[in-house]
Specification:
Blueprint (H helix, E strand, L loop, with lengths): L7 H6 L36 E10 L5 E13 L2 E13 L13 E15 L2 E11 L13 E7 L2 E7 L2 E7 L34 E10 L5 E13 L2 E13 L13 E15 L2 E11 L13 E8 L2 E6 L2 E7 L2
Antiparallel strand pairs: 1-2, 1-8, 2-3, 3-4, 4-5, 5-6, 6-7, 7-8, 9-10, 9-16, 10-11, 11-12, 12-13, 13-14, 14-15, 15-16
Length: 329
């Protein structure tokens, strides 16, 4: 999804439609800016201070899932506004085909963008003044800087940067302070966040399945399967999942560990977590695995950042990894 390069005058000319703008997905945006004409704060002027959230889900022309999230942190002093927003774009393979750029089932691109601006009458004028993006195999790190015209209406901030380009941010009210942030492998770190979406949250409780077949570097077939059992209550999310990994020799010879062409390992992980809107944080608390000649029964415990995309889909991310769970029918 690309953002057209637009003139600032075109943005101003379409201000009248800003209030009716629902959350349209932004792509790369670029326009010019001008200085503020207002010097004294109007007591009736809009207040942009606070934390604002935006999210958009879509499917690209290859059928892969795209989840865009932005978390805006703005501070208004008089007519001046400054702050930043963190943007994370996660791509997830729906048909289990690996992405060519990283040979994985998904990837996340993150950017922190610094913004500055002012209040002009009943409008918010913002411009991007810089950004931080870590280049990687799926991200060249290039960005265009953009300018926005915005209108605050109650708990929403409608931003526009062109005749048909805009998005509606929702003010956060739960006091959450931990943002999405560019981190080591380009994955978003979300400790606590509420999306305050007008859409009802989808249920997390139930049974979820994840499966993958692949060929490893030695030419052996590897079959992975996870079955997640989650319960949701007022106290949070709890449950467990069983992970089974089977490996089969591609050339028909035997593994040295068990003198057989196949072996299988099974692990049960107990988990607990919290749900905030469409976001879920899950942590592995302990595990049980049987020691065998092919398995030392040692495991590492992980923490997952989850996103409920619809009633039957749950995306989990941990560092550079992503997986898409499907609800068991």
């Amino acid at each position: 999804m690309s953002r057209q390069l637009l003139a600032f005058a075109s943005v101003a000319a379409t201000l009248a439609g800003a209030a009716g703008c629902a959350g349209m997905a932004p792509g790369a945006k670029r326009v010019s800016t001008r200085t503020a004409s207002a010097k004294i704060a109007d007591p009736n002027a809009p207040d942009a201070s606070g934390v604002w959230d935006w999210m958009f889900r879509s499917t690209d022309d290859q059928g892969d899932m795209r989840v865009e999230q932005e978390e805006w942190h703005l501070a208004q002093r008089g007519v001046r506004i400054e702050g930043y927003y963190d943007r994370a774009v996660t791509m997830m393979s729906v048909d289990e085909r690996l992405f060519r750029c990283n040979q994985r089932l998904g990837f996340t691109k993150t950017t922190r963008v610094r913004v500055a601006g002012q209040v002009e009458g009943d409008r918010i004028v913002l411009r991007e003044v810089g950004f931080e993006a870590k280049p990687g195999p799926c991200d060249d790190g290039a960005r265009n800087l953009v300018a926005y015209i915005g209108i605050v209406r109650g708990p929403t901030l409608a931003l526009r940067w062109g005749p048909e380009a805009g998005q509606t941010l929702v003010r956060r009210t739960d006091g959450g302070r931990t943002p999405l942030s560019p981190s080591g492998e380009g994955a978003p770190t979300v400790q606590r966040a509420s999306m305050n979406s007008s859409e009802p949250a989808q249920p997390v409780g139930g049974t979820w399945i994840w499966e993958l077949r692949s060929i490893d570097a030695e030419g052996d077939e590897r079959m992975e399967r996870e079955e997640w059992h989650l319960n949701e209550s007022a106290d949070g999310v709890s449950g467990y999942y069983d992970r089974t990994v089977a490996r089969v020799r591609g050339d028909g010879t035997n593994f040295s560990c068990n003198s057989a062409p196949r072996y299988e390992t099974t692990t049960r992980y107990n988990i607990s977590g919290q749900r905030f809107g469409d976001k879920v944080t899950l942590t592995e608390t302990d595990f049980k695995a049987m020691r065998s000649p092919c398995d030392n029964a040692q495991r590492r415990l992980d923490t997952y950042q989850g996103h409920v995309t619809d009633a039957d889909s749950l995306i989990l991310s941990w560092g550079p990894g992503n997986q898409l769970l499907r609800r068991k029918k």
